[in-house]
Design brief:
This protein is α/β, with parallel strands linked by helices. It contains 16 helices and 8 strands.
């Protein structure tokens, strides 16, 4: 499967439920990596702990990351995600920049402007995104060529560690640590690197703040326009996925599922869905609401239940549990894309793939409704 076949993603969703991979972070933990492993020689002198910065394994342990991609593909994933959930200058600053709060200061737009202009952080973010996309592309093509089944690469664009909608200071509700333009700039840099690495789609995921997602969508639009992709009609499909709380709100921004869809509908995404959150059972009513309201393909990749430190994966639900829930969603006609978020290993994805196999996909809207200028792609 090469880039010339990317336009078949839409045809895949029209014929069956596609399978998305599982949790990169969860699966990394099963390899028993240490601080020394993630540092390697390159980051051995870093001042802060890096083990929770899993994106860096793309550079220091590409063998392990490649093995994880292979395992998810062999488990039945049609779409694998890049290991770039936190690969922006803003997120990477948490690991490589001195925190002004430790010295009586605070993070504010001036601080994040210095982050956006930091050449080390920008170069690092670019390298992680481009290399991760190339690693995914390589494994997707290998498995596709061996199996004869097309496989796709989604560029993972995470929610950041800052919010545009809320103030972190209860005494100053109008304060924001970062500006819309700064968030947009960080996302635009990530998007360009993912495209350079050869992704098939861009996935804005685990959204807890709709305004952050808006910044990502504007960044994508700007990249398409500024880089000539609009003129050449080579835009990538854009996928959007939100995390919800018990009341169906998108966490910090507090929007209901319907309000969230209204906020992003203008972008006419290739798919919209729910991920992470509180597990499949608690996600179910909100998934039904989104499936009813949205005129796009529906994705669903929940956490494997609630966190449980006594579980081998750190979450309650095993492969059979996830298969039972996702299979039920499929039989109910709610979804076009099924997968797993935190706590879901290749074994979980194999069980989910088996559970949705043969189940008819949710009926997609007419092509004229989904093929917007934002999502067109030609070889």
């Amino acid at each position: 499967m090469t880039n010339t076949g990317q336009s078949t993603l839409g045809r895949l969703l029209a014929t069956r439920i596609a399978v998305l991979d599982g949790a990169m972070g969860t699966t990394i933990r099963t390899y028993g990596m240490t601080e020394a492993d993630i540092r390697g020689e390159r980051f051995q002198n870093a001042a802060k702990d890096l083990l929770n910065n899993g994106d860096l394994f793309t550079l220091t342990r590409p063998d392990m990351i490649g093995d994880i991609h292979r395992r998810f593909l062999e488990a039945g994933a049609d779409i694998i995600e890049t290991n770039t959930f936190g690969a922006t200058s803003i997120v990477q600053s948490e690991f490589f920049v001195d925190d002004p709060r430790e010295h009586g200061g605070r993070k504010d737009p001036a601080f994040y402007q210095s982050v956006i202009e930091n050449s080390f952080l920008n170069d690092l973010a670019w390298e992680v995104n481009e290399q991760s996309a190339r690693q995914c592309r390589d494994w997707a093509d290998r498995v596709a060529n061996a199996s004869g089944i097309p496989r796709f690469v989604a560029g993972s664009i995470g929610p950041l560690t800052v919010s545009l909608s809320n103030s972190p200071d209860a005494d100053d509700p109008g304060f924001r640590v970062v500006t819309f333009d700064q968030v947009k700039a960080a996302y635009a840099h990530q998007v360009r690197a993912l495209i350079a690495g050869g992704v098939d789609a861009l996935l804005i995921e685990t959204i807890f703040d709709s305004l952050n997602a808006k910044a990502a969508l504007v960044a994508i639009r700007d990249v398409f326009d500024e880089d000539g992709l609009t003129r050449n009609r080579k835009k990538l499909p854009v996928m959007i996925s939100a995390a919800v709380g018990r009341g169906g709100e998108t966490m910090i921004s507090g929007q209901t599922v319907e309000a969230f869809w209204t906020a992003v509908e203008h972008a006419k995404p290739f798919s919209v869905g729910l991920n992470c959150s509180l597990g499949p059972d608690l996600m179910a009513p909100f998934l039904r609401e989104l499936s009813e309201k949205a005129n796009a393909a529906i994705s669903c990749y929940p956490n494997a239940g609630l966190p449980n430190p006594l579980s081998p994966t750190g979450f309650d639900l095993g492969p059979d549990d996830m298969a039972r829930s996702l299979g039920a969603f499929a039989r109910e006609g709610l979804i076009n894309i099924a997968g797993g978020c935190c706590g879901n290993t290749p074994e979980h994805i194999a069980a989910i793939a088996k559970a949705v196999d043969g189940a008819p996909p949710r009926v997609l809207p007419a092509a004229s409704e989904t093929e917007s200028p934002l999502v067109e792609r030609t070889a």
